[in-house]
User: Which sequence fits this backbone?
């Protein structure tokens, strides 16, 4: 518990810095938001000035930052001048889609990676290992969007099993929801799969060389039990760490995948807001995503210290 | 998934463990390593065989070979006879050997810091072999584990059983390793440098513990060490290994009174003695252990042997019988009685 | 692009005296056994890509920007060697010209990351204290953003010229290199020979240059090839989203994006640039990984 308390100032500091950085970056973007809203060309300076005052753009930067931050903390990220929608509402409406996508991707990746890595590690150096590792290596060279196109080509265009675009929420039909989510989730999962597999394999091989594995063998335990019970557990901690670290990659990939499959998620919203120069929306979404990312990483970190007995019981 | 192996009570004179011409070759980046070459010895129930040698002499590889724990993919060759209770287990598959490991033979490892799984509780690690080999249920196994911990001298076993290895000291961890090894009442215990990683004071405790447990259960013990002193008072017979071969083997007393192999003599001389005067030079053995990848012809110790002759570098000395019973050595020019001060010349 | 073997600093081998001998030994290792045909195939492919990028303008190719409607979506080996895209433009020549973007951006971005990130890391690892804490804090903040989010923001800010994109991606790589450099510096600094140099009164600059740097450079460089592969992926992701170098300059990512539209009718429009990119990234990963495990003493002792 002491560990937790020590890290909280760091957490708050990081979050503050993140919010500051976000605000500054977006505020320093070229282009006058007021002009963009009213439309360039043929707009009177007075109208621009009036809008600027209304939006509060004429006040000093720092003041605007603190005001924005204060609002953000109470859940108000402003209202998009372009769409008129409250930023927070827009995010919340789309969040379930992105979360489902991310969770599915990670789960699929883990479910495939763990057994494959165990096989690979157990038969390290053999033909099977080389095939699995080779496939993983090749997968790492395929970016998310390429994988998405490949999957669409095979499963949507040629086989017609899954839709190429579109999202059906769970509330309408869980079956259709899964169908529309599978290809996007797979696209994201493949790279994660390659990374998890590679890392877990290396870690398992290292663990399997330890003395306590030999002792387990000396006890006459069967190989599967040694692998699952004795080897996987110590190695799972570094896997957990990687899953946490990779979340940034998953979120980034989600932006692209959502765009490709036209899924109504937060990532797609961000992308389109950037294209439309809806800066307030961009600010809000970036802050939201970055904050969520920092918090989740923090939680994963805490989990790690709680689960790993070497850390938990050390004085 | 548990079978109870009935222990055969050996009424005859046949030894508990008999090893004949055991040879092990391992794969390595540098080539094939001749780790163990033509090793033969026997061990009776209730007796202790000490195996002494420098690091790299092949003692640990041999210990692993006995248990069938050689690296799966890294072993190039394993030949010879390993006879446990008159059954040759040298060629048994891993699956078959698993049934033996625990109930009939067990091993104690060198480094207690790494021998226990750091993320599993001690209780779990103790209970595993009990449930697997002895068919106990959780309750029984837990109870038995607590008894075992007591038997190896761990105070407060009820509490300790739920702790993790890093919460115990080195000496205590080694006791737990011993407890695990003894859990299923094996006939044969192989102790590979059981005290090397421990403090001197703890060393004696652990060795005493092993001795008393051995007497209680009439186990055959193979005690491996690089330290002649450790083995001296506790072994009935001692085998000296060098470069993968046994160079001399004899009952303990005979070895110390009548050592014949120059390497044994050098080992003996290198031990500092309390009665030596202050500032007496330590007698190290000059040179280094040979590399075992492409062994040179002739005696492996020849390069470092003070009595070596031409013949030693060219021919491998065979194992020959000495005068005393059970005493064998492999040397063309053995060390004779010191009062004579002469050595055989050919 | 010189083979990394020539960049290897000879002082890595502890028991060999002269630099010339070391160099010869390294060369021998690379050209001798240990690197199979797969390795050399990948190297060959990379050379092809680089040569194509460098000599694009002099190669006998069609105009990459010239739309020939008659050839629209024609399959490979019909009117065009690798087929034509939705506007009838020659895919092969677009690939070749697109490789320029990939090569330039990957080299530039990785260099930026290495130079800035590497220096920051070495200094942080050497000087420790508040400087290190400050650097690490700033890096943590950069790492607090998912990379694409940060990149999108940067690109919107800096613009979409070749240089701007390279700098933006390079910026992303600074934390990674800083960490690698710092970790290796920390390991080196604690060793005896640095303490010895200090005891002899060597200046900080001298220590950094002669003791720390040679030992840190190798791991940093080894990571370089793999990093380049990642940069190509990142850049093409941006291009796919339309946020990399602007049209009409062809980019691999842009070509794939265009190909998506024709998946049902003309697969090759997306497939050809995809395969090209895949082979390039795979080769970079493979070669980089092999070199790293060969020259990294720790790993090869496994």
Assistant:
């Amino acid at each position: 518990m002491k560990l937790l308390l020590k890290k909280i100032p760091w957490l708050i500091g990081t979050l503050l810095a993140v919010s500051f950085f976000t605000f500054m970056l977006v505020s320093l973007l070229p282009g006058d938001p007021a002009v963009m809203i009213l439309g360039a060309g043929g707009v009177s300076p007075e109208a621009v000035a009036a809008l600027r005052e209304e939006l509060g753009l004429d006040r000093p930067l720092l003041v605007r930052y603190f005001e924005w931050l204060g609002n953000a903390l109470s859940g108000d990220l402003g209202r998009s001048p372009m769409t008129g929608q409250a930023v927070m509402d827009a995010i919340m409406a789309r969040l379930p889609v992105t979360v489902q996508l991310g969770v599915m991707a990670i789960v699929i990746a883990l479910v495939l990676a763990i057994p494959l890595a165990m096989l690979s590690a157990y038969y390290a150096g053999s033909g099977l290992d080389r095939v699995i590792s080779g496939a993983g290596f090749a997968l790492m060279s395929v970016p998310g969007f390429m994988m998405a196109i490949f999957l669409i080509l095979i499963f949507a265009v040629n086989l017609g099993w899954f839709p190429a675009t579109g999202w059906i929420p769970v509330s309408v039909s869980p079956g259709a929801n899964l169908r529309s989510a599978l290809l996007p989730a797979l696209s994201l999962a493949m790279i994660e799969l390659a990374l998890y597999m590679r890392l877990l394999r290396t870690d398992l091989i290292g663990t399997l060389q330890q003395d306590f594995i030999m002792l387990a063998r000396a006890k006459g335990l069967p190989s599967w039990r040694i692998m699952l019970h004795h080897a996987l557990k110590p190695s799972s901690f570094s896997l957990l760490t990687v899953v946490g670290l990779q979340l940034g990659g998953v979120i980034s990939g989600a932006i692209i995948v959502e765009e490709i499959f036209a899924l109504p998620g937060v990532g797609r919203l961000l992308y389109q807001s950037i294209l439309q120069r809806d800066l307030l929306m961009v600010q809000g979404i970036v802050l939201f995503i970055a904050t969520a990312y920092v918090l989740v990483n923090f939680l994963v970190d805490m989990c790690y210290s709680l689960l790993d007995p070497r850390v938990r019981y050390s004085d | 998934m548990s079978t109870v192996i009935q222990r055969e009570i050996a009424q005859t004179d046949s030894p508990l463990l008999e090893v004949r011409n055991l040879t092990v070759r391992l794969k390595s980046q540098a080539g094939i390593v001749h780790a163990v070459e033509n090793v033969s010895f026997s061990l009776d129930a209730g007796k202790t065989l000490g195996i002494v040698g420098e690091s790299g002499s092949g003692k640990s590889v041999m210990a692993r070979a006995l248990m069938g724990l050689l690296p799966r993919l890294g072993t190039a060759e394993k030949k010879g006879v390993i006879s446990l209770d008159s059954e040759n287990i040298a060629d048994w598959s891993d699956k078959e050997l698993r049934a033996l490991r625990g109930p009939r033979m067990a091993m104690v490892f060198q480094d207690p810091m790494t021998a226990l799984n750091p993320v599993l509780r001690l209780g779990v690690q103790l209970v595993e072999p009990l449930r697997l080999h002895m068919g106990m249920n959780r309750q029984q196994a837990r109870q038995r584990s607590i008894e075992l911990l007591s038997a190896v001298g761990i105070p407060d076993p009820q509490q300790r059983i739920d702790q993790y290895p890093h919460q115990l000291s080195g000496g205590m961890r080694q006791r737990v390793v011993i407890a695990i090894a003894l859990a299923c009442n094996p006939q044969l215990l192989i102790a590979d440098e059981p005290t090397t990683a421990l403090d001197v004071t703890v060393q004696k405790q652990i060795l005493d513990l092993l001795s008393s447990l051995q007497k209680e259960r009439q186990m055959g013990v193979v005690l491996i060490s690089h330290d002649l002193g450790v083995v001296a008072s506790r072994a009935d017979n001692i085998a000296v290994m060098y470069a993968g071969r046994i160079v001399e083997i004899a009952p303990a007393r005979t070895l110390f009174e009548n050592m014949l192999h120059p390497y044994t003599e050098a080992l003996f001389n290198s031990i500092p003695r309390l009665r030596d005067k202050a500032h007496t030079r330590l007698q190290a053995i000059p040179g280094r252990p040979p590399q075992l990848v492409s062994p040179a012809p002739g005696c492996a110790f020849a390069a470092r042997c003070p009595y070596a002759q031409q013949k030693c570098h060219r021919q491998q000395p065979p194992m020959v019988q000495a005068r005393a019973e059970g005493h064998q050595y492999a040397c063309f020019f053995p060390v004779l009685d010191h009062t004579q001060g002469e050595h055989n010349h050919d | 692009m010189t083979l990394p073997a020539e960049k290897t600093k000879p002082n890595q081998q502890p028991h060999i005296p002269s630099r010339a001998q070391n160099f010869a030994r390294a060369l021998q290792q690379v050209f001798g056994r240990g690197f199979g045909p797969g390795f050399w195939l990948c190297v060959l492919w990379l050379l092809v890509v680089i040569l194509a990028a460098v000599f694009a303008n002099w190669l006998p190719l069609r105009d990459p920007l010239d739309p020939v409607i008659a050839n629209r979506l024609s399959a490979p080996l019909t009117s065009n060697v690798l087929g034509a895209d939705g506007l009838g433009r020659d895919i092969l020549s677009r690939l070749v010209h697109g490789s320029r973007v990939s090569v330039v951006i990957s080299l530039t971005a990785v260099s930026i990351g290495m130079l800035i990130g590497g220096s920051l890391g070495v200094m942080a690892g050497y000087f420790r204290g508040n400087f290190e804490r400050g650097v690490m804090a700033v890096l943590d903040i950069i790492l607090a953003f998912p990379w694409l989010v940060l990149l999108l923001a940067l690109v919107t800010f800096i613009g979409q010229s070749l240089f701007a994109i390279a700098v933006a991606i390079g910026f992303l790589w600074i934390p990674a290199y800083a960490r690698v450099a710092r970790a290796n510096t920390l390991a080196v600094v604690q060793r005896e020979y640095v303490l010895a140099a200090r005891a002899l009164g060597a200046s900080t600059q001298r220590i950094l240059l002669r003791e720390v740097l040679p030992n840190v450079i190798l791991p940093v460089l080894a990571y370089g090839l793999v990093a380049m592969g990642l940069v190509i992926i990142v850049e093409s992701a941006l291009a796919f989203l339309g946020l990399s170098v602007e049209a009409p300059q062809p980019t691999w990512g842009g070509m794939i994006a265009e190909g998506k539209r024709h998946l049902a009718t003309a697969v090759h429009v997306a497939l050809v640039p995809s395969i090209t990119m895949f082979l390039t990234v795979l080769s970079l990963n493979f070669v980089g990984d092999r070199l790293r495990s060969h020259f990294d003493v720790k790993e090869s002792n496994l």
